[in-house]
Amino acid sequence: MIDIYLPDLKYFSTELSLKYSHATDYFEQATLAIAEMYRQVGTPVFDETTGMMKKGMIVRHLLLPGQAK
Fold first, then answer.
1. Is 42 left (phi over 0), alpha (psi -120 to 50) or beta?
2. Are 43 and 34 in contact (CB under 8 A)?
3. CA distances from 4 to 23, 34, 43 (A)
4. SS3 for 23?
5. What is the dihedral sign for C-alpha 47, 52, 54, 59?
6. Using only C-alpha atoms, what is the Rg of the chain?
7. 3-class SS at 39?
8. Nearest alpha carbon to residue 10 among 1, 2, 19
9. CB of 47 within 8 A of CB of 4?
10. What is the pLDDT of residues 7-61, one digit of tens each?
């Protein structure tokens, strides 16, 4: 049913995930969810003519202002 997943990965830091999302295990849970998405869609598939992705996953890693360490 899903062709392309576009999950966000907001925090690696437990301190930041607790501060902003009240979650001590954000990174662990997010990576489990991302692994499941990858299991479902597998290796990316691209259109040979346009180069656009037809199936797969794109992970957005968001950097918080002042937290790029």
1. left
2. no
3. 27, 12, 11
4. coil
5. positive
6. 15
7. helix
8. 19
9. no
10. 999 888 899 999 999 999 999 999 999 999 999 999 999 999 999 999 999 999 8
